[in-house]
Design a protein that fits this description.
mainly beta, 7-stranded mixed β-sheet
Length: 122
């Protein structure tokens, strides 16, 4: 089975930086896209950033210019560099991967990590 494991969350001051990482492991044939979502208390889960196989990226308007998504395809890993963090960025951040497994019994499926908590506070 496929697993996604996030790391890098924690408590930071406003204006600080964090780098999140997510590694996918297991029986992976291909990864079509990877991304980061976040969910704050009382709010819906929202897309933060995504990167597809061709390298194209997409960002939420609220993080453009502050966050950067990158990937290492050989290691099935995606990173999210978060700069100039604001209290509004406080949330649980979830890694998402659209992944095909070698059996090819189904098309690509979405897999999710368990999340890593980012808290931006004085």
């Amino acid at each position: 089975q496929v697993q996604l494991v996030e790391s890098g969350g924690g408590l930071v001051q406003p204006g600080g930086s964090l780098r999140l990482s997510c590694a996918a492991s297991g029986s992976i044939f291909s990864i079509s896209a990877m991304g980061w979502y976040r969910q704050a208390p009382g709010k819906q889960r929202e897309l933060v950033a995504a990167i597809i196989s061709g390298g194209s990226t997409n960002y939420a308007d609220s993080v453009k210019g502050r966050f950067t998504i990158s990937r290492d395809n050989a290691k099935n890993t995606v990173h999210l560099q978060m700069n100039s963090l604001k209290p509004e960025d406080t949330a649980v951040y979830y890694c998402n991967g659209r992944i095909s497994i070698p059996t090819m019994s189904r098309g690509p499926m979405d897999y999710w990590g368990k999340g890593t908590l980012v808290t931006v506070s004085s």
